[in-house]
Amino acid sequence: MSVSRRLTRRAADDDAMSLRRVNVAVLVLLAVAFLIIVQRNLLNLNDFLRSENPDAVPGMILPFESEFSPELRPDLVRTGEKIPVVITAAEERLGAVVAAMNSVYQNSKSNIVFNIVTMNDTVDHLKVWMTKTQLNNVKHTIIIFEPQLLNGKITKNPQKLDSVKPLTFARFYMPVFIPDAEKAIYLDDDIIVQGDIQELFDTSLKSGHAAAFSDDCDSASAKGIVRGAGNQNNYIGFLDFKKDAIKKLGMRANTCSFNPGVIVANLTEWKRQNITNQLEHWMELNAQEDLYSKTLAESITTPPLLIVFYKHHSSIDPMWHVRHLGATGAGNRYSPQFVKAAKLLHWNGHYKPWSRTSSFTEVWDKWYIQDPMRKFHPVRKHAD
C-alpha cells in the first residue's frame, strides 16, 4: 500500500473518531438538558400541589399525604416506640392545651405523637398555633369530634345542657380515635408535665385491666382534697346511692374514687371489654334516671368511669398526678418544693393557671406559648 493511501485512511479514521466524540458529547448534553427539564417540571408540580392544598399542616392527616410532615428537620425527628397522647383542644382553652403539649414535649426525648381532639370551628386557630410557633416540629394529628356521638347520652335538661362540654367525653372514645394504638395516655388540658412522659407510659397495668388512674386517697394529693361539697374522694360523692340502678351494682359507697384527668390505657384490653359501649350505657341510663350525685354538677365524666372501672383498674404513681391545684387554698396546701418535685401537676377545680386567682401560675407560664393570632390572653394580677 502506498504512503499516500495510508495517510488518506488514517485521516478518515481520525475524522470518524472525532465525529463519534462529538456525538457522545451531544448525547451527554441532551441527557443533562432532559434531567434539568424533568427536575423543573417536578418542582412546578410540587408548587402546584401546595397551591391546591394551602391548608396542609404538619401532622394533619390528609388524602395521599404521609402522616407526618417531611419538612421536619432530621435532627428533630424522634424515632423509637411511639407514645400516643390524647388531649382535647377547646377554643376557649386553646392556650391550655398548647402549654400542656409544650411541657410534655420539652421534658422528653421520646417519640411522642399528640392526638388532638377538637371541634371543627377550632381547627384553623389550632393549625396556626401549631405551625407558627416552636410546636411546628411536634408530631400530631388533628381529630374532629362529632357531637352527634353524644345523642341520647347526655341530659336534655336545658338548665344543665349549657354546662355540658362535648370534648370532655373524648377520653371515652380513645380506641375510635387511634384504632391502631395498643396503649395510650389521656391528659386533661389543665396539666403541666415536669417529668419524662415515657415513665408514665411505662406504667404497668395488671392483667385484665384496661386503664390505670390515680386514686383520690393517695398520699401525694390527699391533702389537696376539696372540702365542703360532699365527699369528693369516694364514690358517694359522685353517685346517687339511693337510685335502684346504683344499689343493684353492690358497690361500697365509701370506696376511694379516682381522677380521670390522667389515664394510662391498654387499648387492646379496652376494646376487648367493650369499655366504650359500657360507658355509653351508663351515660344513657343517667340521661333517663339521673344517677349522678347532685353535689358535683361538673363531674359528668367521672361517674360512668367509676362504675365501669370499679375495683378493676391499676394505679398511677401519685407523683404523676398531683392535683387540686385549682382548688381554693392550693398555695397553702402544697409547698413550692413539693410542686417542683411533682412529675405532673393538675389544676383541676375552679381556678385555672391562665386565670387571675390560681396558685402556682408561674409554673404554667414557663410552658405557655403566646397565641400568634392574639386571641387567647392569660389573665394576670399585674394586668391592667
TrEMBL record:
Keyword Glycosyltransferase tagged: yes
Pfam name, any one: Glyco_transf_8
Residues that span the membrane, as ranges: 21-38
UniProt-annotated location(s): Membrane
GO molecular function, one term: UDP-glycosyltransferase activity
CDD domains on file: GT8_like_1
Organism superkingdom: Eukaryota
Keyword Isomerase: no
Membrane topology type: Single-pass type II membrane protein
GO cellular component: Golgi apparatus; membrane
Keywords: Glycoprotein, Glycosyltransferase, Membrane, Signal-anchor, Transferase, Transmembrane, Transmembrane helix
Similarity comment text for this entry: Belongs to the glycosyltransferase 8 family.
The name this protein goes by in its record: Glycosyltransferase 8 domain-containing protein 1
Gene expressing this chain: glt8d1
